[in-house]
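JOB MANIFEST
job_type = single_chain_structure
chain_count = 1
residues = 379
[input]
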Amino acid sequence: MRFSTIPGQESVKQLLRQSVARQHVAHAQLFRGADGSAALALALAYATFLNCEGRGPDAEDSCGQCASCQKTDKLVHPDLNFIVPVTTTKAVAKDAVSSKFMTDWRAFVLDNPYQGLNDWMQHIGAENKQGSISKDESLQLLRLVSLKAFEARFKIVIIWLPELMHPAASNAVLKLLEEPPPATIFLLVSFAPEQLLPTILSRVQPVVVRPLSENDLTEYLRDEQKIPEVKARQLAQLANGNLGFALAARTATSSDHDYFALFTTWMRHCYGYKVDKLLSQSDEFQKLGRENQKEFLQFALGLLRKVLLFGIDAQFVPHLPAAEQQFINGFSRFVHLRNAELLTTEINDAHYHIERNANPRMVFVDTSLRIAELLKMAA
């Protein structure tokens, strides 16, 4: 994992580089971000950078060529260790600890380092069980850090989702943070740091990983994942900064649809109260299929939010493609504080009914007529 392969996050990357250049590497750091963020990817890139053998004093990234980089890229470096939440499965019927799932973990992370807990539980076949970092893990951890680094400068321990630690595991980690072993770096990657012990939080250096902007995510999906511009922007808006969601959703639907064109046409028909056009469009909506119908309604909610924000202050809306900007400029006259919440409720209700297998054509027509009334409401 290289810093260069992670979209955005330039300020975080620079902070991490500077800590190494100044030789001020904190022994315990907390990468805090939302589910689907680049928190784990950044921790991995940082671990690679720390132990890179070919890195010069002014290097911006790990070399990717030395033995350390190549082993870390495959997650098989003997001085790179992981503690992750697990549970008993058909393959591991008892005494579930991280070490028994490392083959699964490597495959999971190498496929997509932006995934979340539910993705991991599905990957290991946990069914409906909840994952955790058990008290047995504390013994494994103490044994792990008692050993010196095998071949790298630092022994690195990445604890993924430490908020799921059993109290015994939390206490073991706390003791290690209070009396850190020499040349050992703890990188905690958390989606819910507020659930950690205050004493742990006080002993780690925070690294805040913010959601990607819509434009950054669009560019990454278009340029790196080779997703067409229209679909990339739709995914970016639906993802709301969640790169893991965007990467999972890129193949979740079988067809490509221009949701923006569909939404603008829908709103024009609603405002003009063109019932015949709305009936015709309801047939088009029905043909989308249920998952695409839900996705379109989520897209509509996101676009509606942009319209409202633009009406309040244009600075709240980032730079957008010309067509989208032009539509928002015009449509913002009809979405205001009096009807915005009601419009949102109508679309949310439509999503709710579609999710519960209601007739999509009837839902679309009913929602359209209600929206038509709301768009006539004076500001």
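[summary]
The chain has a mean pLDDT of 89.
Residues 290-312 form the longest helix (23 residues).
exit_status = 0
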